Amino acid sequence: MPYVLDRKAAILTEESVLLKNNSLITILCYYFAAKIFTEKGILFMSIRWNILLAVIVFALLAWLYSLQQNDMPTLVKDDSAPEYIAKQMTTTVFGPTGSIQYQAQSSNVDYFNNDKTVFSQPILYVYDENQIKTWRLQADTATLTDKDKLTLQGNVKLQSLVETSKLQTIDAERAFVNLTTQDITSDTMVTLTGLNFTSQGKALDGNLRKESATLKEQVKTYYEIQKN
């Protein structure tokens, strides 16, 4: 009987130990589960906050970028603006045979992409077939198009560099010169001076190489009589 009691007591003791062990294991399982859940919850919350903060930062950056774009000037190329500009330029142009066609000096030169060049305060020299300077062309501005079409504008003065030329100077407000043929025209009032004469009139047609000029309208001519 004592043996049986002792046996039962032993069995009860073992069961109690097992229950205690199971309870401890259960508690530990709940603890680790709660810990894992809590850590996962913290991690989940951390990810949510990171995403939210990233969205806020991105929105602020986008807003700042839009402000900068509004403040920045819009860079649009002006088609009327020159491609490049040169200062204090001297340009020598040669003809197909290699001879000098003309030489241009200017304080400022604007080069455009449509085969147009604008000279400020230009001085141009044209040459004859012997490579000798024959005429000096001067104006406030000059516009060169199609490589040889020259438009002189403002205080235009053409002066012969040949002392024996019968035509010495041409003064006008505007003149058009073909630098290849040296033809000259004008649609403004023109003053011509030559050997012993001065002529004034409107609308000029002439040729520098031939030393010829004809006024078409309102012509007045004054001759100087040489005294013996």
The CATH class of the largest domain is identified as Mainly Beta
Side-by-side strand order of the widest sheet: 2-3-6-7-5-4
CATH superfamily of the largest domain: Lipopolysaccharide (LPS) transport protein A like domain
Question: How many individual β-strands?
Answer: 11
CATH topology of the largest domain: the name is: lipopolysaccharide transport protein A fold
Using the 3D structure, state the CATH architecture of the largest domain. Answer: Sandwich
Instruction: Give the C-alpha Rg.
Output: 49 Å
Mean of residue pLDDT values = 79
Strand content: over 45%
Helix and strand composition category: alpha+beta
Cα-to-Cα separation, first versus last residue: 181 Å
Number of helices: 1
Question: What would you note in describing this structure?
Answer:
This protein is an alpha+beta fold and 228 residues long. It folds into two domains: 14-68; 84-223, lipopolysaccharide transport protein A fold. 31% of the residues lie in helices and 45% in strands. The protein has one helix and eleven strands, in the order αβββββββββββ. It has one helix at residues 2-71; strands at residues 84-94, 100-111, 116-120, 123-127, 133-138, 141-145, 149-160, 167-178, 183-194, 197-207, 212-223. Strands 2-3-6-7-5-4 form a six-stranded antiparallel β-barrel. Strand 7 (149-160) and strand 8 form a beta hairpin. The longest helix has 70 residues, at 2-71. The protein is elongated, with a radius of gyration of 49 Å.
